[in-house]
Amino acid sequence: MRKEDCFYLGKVVSKYSFKGEVLVKLDTDEPEIYENMESVFVSLGNNLVPFFIDRCRLHKSNLLRIDFEEVKDEPTADKIIGAELYLPLSMLPPLSGNKFYFHEVIGFTLMDEVYGNIGTIKSINDSASQDLFEVEKEGKELLIPINDEIITKVDRKNRTIHVKTPEGLVDLYLSE
User: Fold this and answer.
1) 3-state secondary structure of 105
2) pTM for the full predicted model
3) Using one digit for the tens of pLDDT, what is the confidence trace for 140-149?
């Protein structure tokens, strides 16, 4: 399994018991849908390794307490602390309306209310405090904030996202 075919589920943050159980901080708004998993891919080195789960359950808010088949003592659990967990993209619950997964909108066209086609989404920058569409138009890169006030419609069928950008933002990029 390749990382490109998976989505990031979370990260092993600590040991929970001397029997090798670990706590995973989930990167999701709905942690309860991952309570009954049978397996996950654990990123070890440059590989995604399948780990099978004996038992997993929610622990507090967005932590998942996992008892892996392969991890039954503290030294083994220590080896996976900090490891990232992944699941196949096919396991993502479908979204509708104006909600979308970042990976699914790459290649979509961004249509602005005033300027029309302002480019193609090349990637999503989620490393800053505000997530941004990285859009390319005629060799120029535009950075458009991703938020509910700007996004007016997600049209999956036509692979477009309709936006109402703040006044002056598109001019800043395209007027040069």
Assistant:
1) helix
2) 0.70
3) 999 999 999 9
